[in-house]
Every structure is written in C-alpha cells, then in structure tokens.
Amino acid sequence: MTTTQKLPNWDMTVIYPGLQAPEFEQGFAAGIREIDELAALFDQYQVAERPALVVDDALAQAFEAVLARYNEVLERSETLFTYINCFVDTNSEDTLAQAKLSELMNAYVRLSQLGTRFTAWIGSLDVEALLAKSEQARQHAHLLRRAQIQARHLMSPAEEMLASELNVSSGLAWSRLHGNLTSQLKVTLELEGETKEYPMSTVRNMSYSPDREVRRCAHEAELAAWKSVSVPLAASLNSIKNETNVLADKRGWSSALEATLFLNSIDQQTLDAMLEAARESFPDMRRYLKAKARALGLEKLSWYDLNAPISKSEKNWSYEAASRFIIEQFGSFSERLADLARSAFNENWIDAGPRPGKVDGAYCAGLRRGESRILANYSPSYESMSTLAHELGHAYHNLNMRECTALQSGSPMTLAETASIFCETIIRNAALKDANRQEQMAILSSSLQSSFMVVVDITSRFLFEQGVFEKRKQRELSVDELNNLMLDSQRQTYGDGLDEAELHPYMWAVKGHYYSSDFPYYNYPYMFGLLFGLGLYARYQQDPEAFKQGYDELLSSTGMANATELAARFGINIRSKDFWCSSLAIVRQDIERLEELVDSL
Fold it and tell me: How buried is residue 155: exposed, middle or buried, by Cβ count under 10 Å (0-12/13-18/19+)?
C-alpha cells in the first residue's frame, strides 16, 4: 500500500516562502492595508445606501473607479486567505497559521461590510441607466441586477455592520471549532489484537477495506469518537442554524431555503423538479444496494459496507498511476484540460495524503488566477483517483475563469460542480473501457456509490437540515434529537436498501457542510451538479465538436448568468422534471449493468 510519506504535499512557496518569512509579513500587512484603503475609497465616493441616486457621468465614473479597486482587493484577499488556510487545513495544530487566519478574519469583517455597502449602493440607483453609460457595468450586468434584488433583503446599515462583526465570534467561530475539533480528533481502534490511535481521516478511509471486520471495527470506533465530541458539535450546529434563521427573517426572506435558492441562482420550481425526480429514482438506487449485498454475500448491507469493494480488481491505482491515467484521459477531451492536470501534478498543486491534524475529505481552492490548490486524502484506489479527477475539474473551471474579475467569477454552488462531474465522468468511462469483468464491477460500484450518495444521501441531508432549521425556531436540539432526526432522514431515503439497525446517527457531526453560516443547505447543489454534469456529458457524446466549442465559454460564464440561462445554451430546461429524469436514467443504466455482472458470477 502506498504510504502517506511518498505522497506529495502542495507547494505554497510560489506565493510566499513561509508564514515566518518577511515576505509573508509584508504581504499580510499590505493585504490588511488595502482593505483599509478600499474603505477610504468607499467613503470618498459615498458608497452606501443613498435613495434616489441620479445616474449621470460623474456617478458612472465613480462606479468604475470603485469597481476596479474592489475587484483588485477581492482577488488579492482570496490569494492571502487560501495561502493561510492551506496551512491550517493540513495542520490544525499550527498555532501561527491559526493566529494569522484569525487576524485575517477580522479584516474580512471589514471587507464583508464593504460588500454590503456596495450592494446597498447598487440597490439605490437605476441599474439599467448605469448599464447604458458604462462598459464596465455592462460586463458585470448579472452581478448588478442580482445586487438590486439582494439590496431589498438587507437590514439597516447598522444592523448589517453589527451582524458581520458578531459573525467572527458566532458563525465563523463555531465553524472553525468544528474544523479544528474534527481534524484533531483521534480514534482509538483495536485491530488484530493491537490498540492504536488513528486520525479520523485514516479511520474513515478504512470503510474501503475488503475486510468486513476491519470496516465494522472502524465504524464502531468512529461512532464512539463522534459521541465523545458530540456535545460541543451540537452546540456549534444549534448556534449556526439559529443565527441563519434569525438573519434570514430579519432580511425579509421567508426561510433560509429561499435565501439559499437565490444564492445558488435557481428557483423553487427547479429544486422541486430535481428532488421529485430524485425521489422517483430511490427504488432503482436501492436495487444497486441490493446488488452490492449479493456481490458481498450479505443478506443486507450495513452502513459500514457502503464503500466496500465488491470485487478484487487487479488494478492498483497508485498515485503515480492515477496521475498518468488522468492526464492521458483528459487529453481525449482536449489538450488544454490535459495541460491543466500536468501543471497540477508537476507543480505540486496537490496535498495528497492523510496525516494527523489534516482535515478529512477533499476540495479545490483558487490560489490565484488560473492556479488552484487541491487537498486530498489519497489511498491507492479507483475512488481516490476519481476524487482527484473531480477536484481537477474544479481547477479547470478556475482556469477558464482566469480572465474574469473577482466579482465575475463568483459562481453559485449549483454550477460550481459542472466541470468536476464532467471530468469524473471522463475518467469513469475510460476506466470501464478496457476493464475486465472484475474491474468493471469495481469501477461501476464505485461510480454508483458516488451517484447514490449524491442523490440519496444528499436528499437525507436536505431533509435533516430542513428539520433542524424548522425545529431550531422553537429551541435547541439535543444530541439525541439530532441523532434521531438524522436516522429518520436516512430511513426515509435509504429505505430497505440498508440494515436499519446499522445506520450512522452522527453524520451531522461528520459533515462540515452543515457548519457554514454563509452557505445554508450546503447539500442539494451537489445533486444539481451531478445531474447537470451528466446531462452535459450526454450532450457531449451526441456532438463532441459542437459541444467543445461552447463548453469552456460556459465554464467562464458561470458567475455572469443564472443557471437557467446557461443550461438553455445546451438545450436544457432545468425547470422540467424530464431533464433530471433523463440524467438519472444514465445512472439506472449503470445499475442494470452492475446487476448483470453480479448475477452472472
């Protein structure tokens, strides 16, 4: 098995030599100073709510000066944040990184307040008149029209300022507590007569073990570890959801869900159509679970069997083999995509292996224009290779927004998964092409497990979060109540596909997505991303050359048009259940293929 010592760490020296370097101190101080200077510019041009503003040449010129500087500061602030956060996420016990991140968050409060002032300013003027006078405004037309709507959902300037200042010690603080607590959490586990402490990320990776006893022991130890920290995590979740409820109400949203639909650039009709299609697919999804149980020789799967390999594939996806395969297969779509992957591997954009103090999971973060950093917890498996391809898709999305300003590149989460799902599908289809029967079973099972989690488990998360938001309006929820709500959500969605006695009551503690005050309902966008990505891939297969001509432009435009408009470019109506059902039909075909392979054994 590949050891974590052989896996690369990401290179952050392209920005600064290190957190203790004079260059970093100078850059950090400059970043703080630029925010202060932006505030002075806002004061100079009276950027704030000002009823009945007249859009004349002077105002248009003021807008262009403010917009240019605001974009510059946002871009440099993102680089500074990503740089520091990369140290925190790979070693949460790095006290210097934690201190610098805390200091930067205080500056971010001021930047957030400036953003609110900018939105209120735009809401005070005639946007269409501004668009007629300014080319820079026309390039940001989508943002400005959305800002007009958002301005109607702002509290008073004093209330917005207070909310942003308190967020540092409320929503953001609770979120950081979850990240720090879970990344440092050690799990005591006995295997083969030896008791050791493991990082949580390592224990969760054991769910992929072919040995059921290892999976079972790891699962039980994991649950015990989550129980040991459940009280502070429940306090975090209760506090964040209450804050979100209060602010949504004060800002005039009917619910946190309505606010997040606006944030994600879709409407209720689209969400309802997608969720209805998902629910109708549950019987097919449970057929997958039952086929997997048959392959494993089990009457019914337990939670800890979900990630179990169903065949002994001869393919060993070492990190080196995965990188070569990804580059080659990305090249089958375009050399530009392959070049992006080469840069990521050759220039050490990726922090690949699990280790103590490192957060679990995987993500991609923009570092600077066209360049990203990818966090992974790689194990030598097809699943980990698929995850790498997924995150590299995000990096390709970032590359395509290289010429966009910071405000133009603010993609909603629903569209942020577009390139990642597309790249994941490229790898899956290529791996299947030359695979033998055993390898096909392994790949299909892995791919279907991912689709299953995004459709079925994401629905359970949506139901859970919806329940928490509703109940939190009355009072705090206890650990037991959170556990029961999670179990009920899992039973509604997993149904008879899993052993009801072996579910995961602490999934609310596992997923950091619940612990964001800025992004409530950090769940259904993943389903949107999967099914939208599959739908796009189907369009690609129908007419590859025509698709390629518009694909990169689509990725570069995800912050400059809503999801409905962008989908329509490829003949997709996301408000229709038929589209979502057509994407789910692709998943159903894979289920049928897996069933044939399993039943022919």
Answer: middle
Residue 334 CB partners (closer than 8 Å, separation 6+): 548
Q: What pTM value is reported for the model?
A: 0.84
Report residue 309: phi and psi, to 5°. Answer: -70, 140
| Alpha carbon distance 266, 98 (integer Å) | 36
331 and 320 Cβ atoms separated by less than 8 Å: no
Strands 186-191 and 371-375: unpaired
| DSSP letters spanning 534-599 | HHHHHHHHH-HHHHHHHHHHHHHTTTSS-HHHHHHTTT--TTSHHHHHHHHHHHHHHHHHHHHHHH
The Cα 372–Cα 397 span in angstroms is 10
Show the tokens assigned to 583: 């994407």
Q: Which residue has the tokens 């790689």?
A: 378
Alpha-carbon distances, residue 33 vs 20, 29, 36, 444 (angstroms): 19, 6, 5, 52
SS3 content of the chain, % helix, strand, coil (to 5): 70, 5, 25
Q: What is the pLDDT averaged over residues 301-330?
A: 90
Extended beta strands in 307-400, E state: 350-351, 363-368, 371-375
Residue 580 and residue 583: Cα distance in Å, rounded?
5
Beta bridge partners of 166: none
pLDDT for the residue 164: 87
Rounded to 5°, angle at Cα 187 from 181 and 193: 170
Give the separation between CA 172 and CA 104, rounded to whole angstroms.
12
Which residue matches tokens 């989550």? 226
Q: Is 354 left (phi over 0), alpha (psi -120 to 50) or beta?
A: beta
Contacts with 106 (C-beta within 8 Å, 6 or more apart), sequence order: 168
d(CA 77, CA 38): 12
Phi then psi for residue 505, to 5 deg, are -65, -20
DSSP string, 133-153: H-HHHHHTHHHHHHHHHHHTT
Reported as a single tens digit per residue, the pLDDT across 61-92 is 999 999 999 999 999 999 999 999 999 999 98
- Separation of alpha carbons 558 and 408, rounded Å: 8
The Cβ-side half-sphere exposure at 97, using a 13 Å CA radius, reads 18
- Residue carrying the six token digits 């990818």: 374
- Measured CA to CA, the distance from residue 26 to residue 22 in angstroms comes to 6
- Phi, psi of 593, deg, nearest 5: -65, -40
Region 530-552: what's the mean pLDDT?
89
The H-or-E segment that residue 343 falls in is helix 335-346
What DSSP designation does 66 have?
A: H
3-state secondary structure of 189: strand
Q: List the structure tokens of 303.
A: 């939670």
